[in-house]
Amino acid sequence: MSLHLGNSKIKDLYLGSTKIKDGFLGAIKIFASSISYIVNLNYQWKETTEYNFGPEYRVFKSNSNYNVNNGTASMFLQSIENKNEDLIVKYYASSEPSYDKLYIESSTNNGSSYTTNATDNGTNNTSAPATLSNYKTYTYTISALASITNLRFRYAKDGSQSKGLDRGFIVLPSKCIRGVIGA
């Protein structure tokens, strides 16, 4: 089969191995898909609607180490596909400043090891910011994503006390999420 764009006649149109139409006539729009991934909450984070930034964003917060000294909660982005645009991550930690931290990390070897790309040392606020402009931003460029296999968001606490909301927050674009597992 040869493909001609515009109003040229296409011999047959298939969806997978199923023939849809003989002698299809019409215009075809070809486009690249946006970056996409699976969010793995790892049974340690949860999606929240407490902070709503509209349908274009989804908000996740650490959960398993709330008020737990020396606790760590990790969430992952895996099965990253269509790496044809930058990935923008918004993040925030409401915690014991300089002791409890939120780490933004990447792996190039399917999670065998991670490199820290950004850290939030926390603030003692009793609420997360109500506007996205008050979250920190980390951007994974297309060239950086080329070698990345997984991302990890890790909220880690020391052994002393809990302050603020005692949570890490991650905000991701809704259009990129293919699914959420580990809830």
Question: Which features characterize this protein?
Answer:
single chain; about 180 residues; mainly beta; Jelly Rolls; 2 domains; six-stranded mixed sheet; five-stranded antiparallel sheet; 1 helix; about 0% helix; globular; disordered N terminus
What can you see in these coordinates?
By secondary structure, the protein is an all-beta fold. Helix content is 2%, strand content 46%. The protein contains 1 helix and 13 strands, in the order E-E-E-E-E-E-E-E-E-E-H-E-E-E. The strands form 3 sheets. A 6-stranded mixed beta sheet has the order 9-8-11-6-3-13, with no helix packed on it. The protein has a 5-stranded antiparallel beta sheet with strand order 4-5-12-7-10. Mean pLDDT is 82; it is low at 1-11 and 20-32.
Write the layout of secondary structure elements.
Layout: E1 9-15, E2 18-25, E3 36-40, E4 45-48, E5 57-62, E6 72-81, E7 87-94, E8 101-107, E9 115-120, E10 136-140, H1 142-145, E11 150-156, E12 167-173, E13 177-181
Parallel strand pairs: 3-13
Antiparallel strand pairs: 1-2, 3-6, 4-5, 5-12, 6-11, 7-10, 7-12, 8-9, 8-11
CATH architecture of the largest domain: Sandwich
Which H/E pattern describes the elements? EEEEEEEEEEHEEE
> What spatial order of strands do you see in the largest sheet?
9-8-11-6-3-13
Number of beta strands: 13
CATH class type of the largest domain: Mainly Beta
Q: What is the fold-level CATH name, i.e. the topology of the largest domain?
A: Jelly Rolls
Return the average pLDDT rounded to an integer.
82
Rg, nearest Å? 21 Å
Helix count, DSSP H or I runs of 4 or more residues: 1
The total domain count is 2
Q: Uncertain spans, ≥5 residues at pLDDT below 50?
A: 1-11, 20-32
Structural class: mainly beta
Helix content: under 10%
Q: Please report the distance between the alpha carbons of the first and last residues.
A: 45 Å
The largest sheet is:
6 strands, mixed
Shape: globular
Strand content: over 45%
